[in-house]
Amino acid sequence: MNEMFMYRRKPHHPTEKPVIHCHKCGEPCKGEVLRVQSRHFHIKCFTCKVCGCDLAQGGFFIKNGEYLCTLDYQRMYGTRCNGCGEFVEGEVVTALGKTYHPNCFACTVLSSKQHSFICRRYSFSVTCSSLFSEAYSHM
Asked: Cα–chain-centroid distance for residue 137?
């Protein structure tokens, strides 16, 4: 028995677009697709690695190749203000290795924000210039 089978092949057209696969689920992307850097995602697949919330509608961070919502990124990697304990973003003041919101940076003795500051490494505190002058003028 010598049977011959013929298979029909779809002709390859060089103008056909390559199939794009979702980076998260691996399935082909059809319809609306998100492109983040060089990766493609179904909109429903673009979620926070930690909490699973939708990242397509809001801001996100990329850390070690993982996509994180702002809240989870801050919880895991954010810097807290040494004055109020909240996360700091944008403009910050750094003194003696500590980070502050500009409004939280104050004299540790007077709790005043109205003075110019002198930071002394040996006292490990932020002291306004008027107190520093009084305290150390007789040295």
From this structure: 46
Residues 52-93: tens digit of each pLDDT: 999 988 889 999 999 999 999 999 999 999 889 998 888 888
122 pLDDT above the threshold of 50: no
pTM over 0.70: no
State whether residue 72 is helix, strand or coil.
Answer: helix
pLDDT in tens, 19-37: 899 999 999 998 889 999 8
Determine the Cα–Cα distance for residues 89 and 99; give it in Å rounded to an integer.
11
Beta strands 39-42 and 33-36 are antiparallel
Rounded to a whole number, what is the distance in angstroms from the first to the last CA of the chain?
Answer: 112
- Give the C-alpha separation, 84 to 100, whole Å: 8
Query: CA angle at residue 76 from 63 to 83, to 5 degrees?
Result: 125
DSSP string, 52-70: --B-SSS-EEEETTEEEEH
CA–CA dist 123, 108 (Å, integer): 11
CA 5 to chain centre: 58
Nearest to 56, CA basis, from 23, 48, 72, 89:
48
